[in-house]
Amino acid sequence: MLRSLRRTTQFKYAVIYVLITAVALIGLNLSTNSTMRQLMYQNKYSSVFGRAQIVASSFAGSEILTRESVGQVMSLLEDVESTRVLITDNEGICLYDNSTRYNAVGSVVLFPEIVSALSGNDVFYSFFQRSVLESHAAIPIMSLNNPMGAVYLMEYDTTQSVLVSALRSNLISISLILEALIIVFSVLFSIAVTRRIHKIMSSMAQVQDGDYSHEIDMRGNDELTDLSSEFNKLTRRLQEGEQVRRQFVSDASHELKTPLASIKLLSDSILQNEMPMQTIREFVLDIGNEADRLTRLSQKLLSLSKLDSNVDEAFVVVDAADIAWKVCRMLQPQASLKHITVVPEMQPESYMMNQEDSLYQIIFNLTENAIKYNVEEGSVFLTVKRDEEFVTIEVGDTGVGIPEKEMDHVFDRFYRVDKARSRAMGGSGLGLSIVHDLVEHNDGTISVRAREGGGTVFTVQFAYVHALDEEDLQ
């Protein structure tokens, strides 16, 4: 249970949040404690060192220090309140000591502070010791720029230490209370955040199980709301894709079922009935035609599958005019059978980048459709032209044309404008879909419009490639 809790985002969020705030509070305590110490040191410097200066200045103008003169001066300075006050001459002999327990009058006092003061230096320092603030100050008594004695003050202050301890204790208590509140709020915050994350994960699991219609109802105006919005867009696209997939499978099954049913019917007729050899040959010929139709359909389905898999092929530089001439020569016999005239108009050196064989298949499929669905003794217009930006390929015909309301669907898979006529001519409804996918796969555009005078015009555009040398054409 604990191990699984440690792996949750909620637990990690809470721990990180608590650690950050704990470090911040510790830093705040240390900073406050340091600031209080500095303030107390400054206060003690002003107090203790200031009193030492007052005592030292009281002897200004004196030529010599004696016990009597020092005692008289100190009796007048009643406001000098320190734990201990020492005054020495220039040899370190104590002339005044307010201590009754450790009185050093008449003795040589060699405190480091007094020795430093007799050398002409001012001394002050303060420190905590056993919850007591201890301060030391020493100032030389000067006569004609030479020390003739020293003033030493030492003070024990328990009041300040009590105040500091109380402030420190209160600060620690406040910090602990704040940290406890932070822990509670961090847990609540992480629960709120992870609840929304769990909601997204739960929705992902539902979609993974196949419920593409599921959407997340997430309120707010943050990144998780944006993520939920993008997730809903993705599920809608998945739902649309699933519908297209199901329609594709249904249409493909229907297209495959028709020739298979014909083959089955013809073969059963041959096996179950006695018929003349001529009839058998006609049936076998029909079976072969249906098998060819299955082959063509399978090849087109494989082409679509290859395009859908986004298999990357090498791009090469091709001349659209040269490929269009090859297509004209290849389809001329088919056009001649229907007495259709192919009218080519090619602008040479119409170079573009294209995947191998893709451009040939695009022009071939469009031109073959223009011949197949044309009228007797009609015309097909195959044009290749270029400008500074694009190479444009147009395939027009003089056929019956496509109704305007149908033009938005001509590139859909298995879509036929005239279903009966298309099946009679061996069409599968995949040719234009393959052309559309090939054009987009090669970064081109394709459009369709009605031709003036009757018929249809398909227009394909690719980016024109400039300034080629012989190596680019290889």
Detailed description of the structure:
By secondary structure, the protein is of the alpha+beta class. The chain folds into three domains: 2-164, 2-Layer Sandwich (Beta-Lactamase), CATH 3.30.450.20; 223-307, Helix Hairpins, CATH 1.10.287.130; 313-473, Histidine kinase-like ATPase, C-terminal domain (Heat Shock Protein 90, 2-Layer Sandwich). It is built from twelve helices and twelve strands. The strands form three sheets. It has a five-stranded antiparallel β-sheet, with helices on both faces. It has a five-stranded mixed β-sheet with strand order 7-9-10-12-11, with helices on one face. It has a two-stranded antiparallel sheet with strand order 6-8. Strand 11 and strand 12 (456-463) form a beta hairpin. Helix 5 (158-208) packs parallel to helix 6, helix 6 runs antiparallel to helix 7 and helix 7 (277-308) packs parallel to helix 11. The longest helix has 51 residues, at 158-208. The radius of gyration is 51 Å and the shape is rod-shaped. The model is unreliable at 419-426 (pLDDT under 50).
Order of helices and strands: HHHEEHEEEHHHEHEEHEEHHEEH
Strand order of the largest sheet: 2-1-5-4-3
Question: Outline, from the CA principal axes?
Answer: rod-shaped
Low-confidence stretches: 419-426
**What's the N-to-C terminus distance?**
67 Å
Structural class: alpha+beta
Total number of strands: 12
Number of domains: 3
Percentage of residues assigned to helices: 40-55%
- How would you classify the quaternary structure? single chain
Largest sheet: 5 strands, antiparallel
CATH third-tier fold name of the largest domain: Beta-Lactamase
Looking at CATH, the homologous superfamily of the largest domain is PAS domain
Residue-averaged pLDDT: 77
The share of residues in extended strands comes to 15-25%
Q: In the CATH hierarchy, what is the class of the largest domain? A: Alpha Beta
The number of helices is 12
CATH architecture of the largest domain: 2-Layer Sandwich
